[in-house]
Design a protein that fits this description.
Strand order of the largest sheet: 1-2-3
Oligomer: single chain
Structural class: alpha+beta
Order of helices and strands: HEEEEHEH
Shape: elongated
Distance between the termini: 99 Å
Largest sheet: 3 strands, antiparallel
Number of strands: 5
Mean pLDDT: 81
Number of helices: 3
């Protein structure tokens, strides 16, 4: 090998070496960020699962210090793991159990949907208990009447249901006045 080839190779190595070093460290850096993200994600999921559907007012922790009240018993938690350029943040939302009361919270009888004019003999499916998601629109396309909501299928179900959970007014369905109204 002559001196010129050696000089060219040495200068190329001087130019390429920082890039090669950067490429060799990239997977290690990504692995550290990924590990921190996994820890923060796990902490956020555990925190949300601990309070989801309970009546307990959440309180922040050292790993999950950013707790935000979104109103209507909904909360958002942000958990953090790592330092410097390896820091990772994960945010999750959750909702507490609605406040139970003896009085219904729909005294003005305002519902999300209008009650259908006619009902068929078919009970609404469990995944669409009022038929408003897909079922009634599909049946009406076939010239059939709306399905009967599960809460109105029988008098015991009707009386056990809560008007707060109705998507349209069932009070005139034929079982008399609901005790909630």
């Amino acid at each position: 090998m002559n001196i010129i080839s050696l000089t060219v190779v040495a200068s190329l190595m001087g130019i390429v070496a920082p890039g090669v070093m950067q490429m060799s460290l990239a997977p290690v850096l990504a692995q550290k960020r990924s590990s921190n993200f996994g820890i923060a994600e796990s902490a956020a999921v555990v925190f949300a699962a601990e309070y989801e559907g309970t009546n307990d007012i959440p309180s922040d922790t050292a790993q999950c210090p950013d707790l935000v009240d979104l109103g209507n018993r909904s909360w958002e938690i942000t958990c953090t793991e790592g330092d410097g350029r390896f820091i990772q943040h994960v945010t999750r939302a959750f909702r507490l159990m609605p406040i139970a009361s003896n009085a219904y919270t729909n005294p003005n009888r305002v519902f999300a949907f209008d009650a259908p004019a006619k009902f068929s003999h078919v009970e609404c499916p469990p995944n669409d208990p009022f038929g408003v998601i897909w079922y009634n629109a599909h049946l009406r396309a076939g010239h059939m009447d709306a399905c009967i909501p599960s809460a109105a299928w029988s008098k015991p179900r009707y009386l056990a249901s809560s008007p707060d959970d109705w998507l349209f007014d069932l009070s005139n369905f034929g079982f008399g006045k609901h005790p909630g109204y």
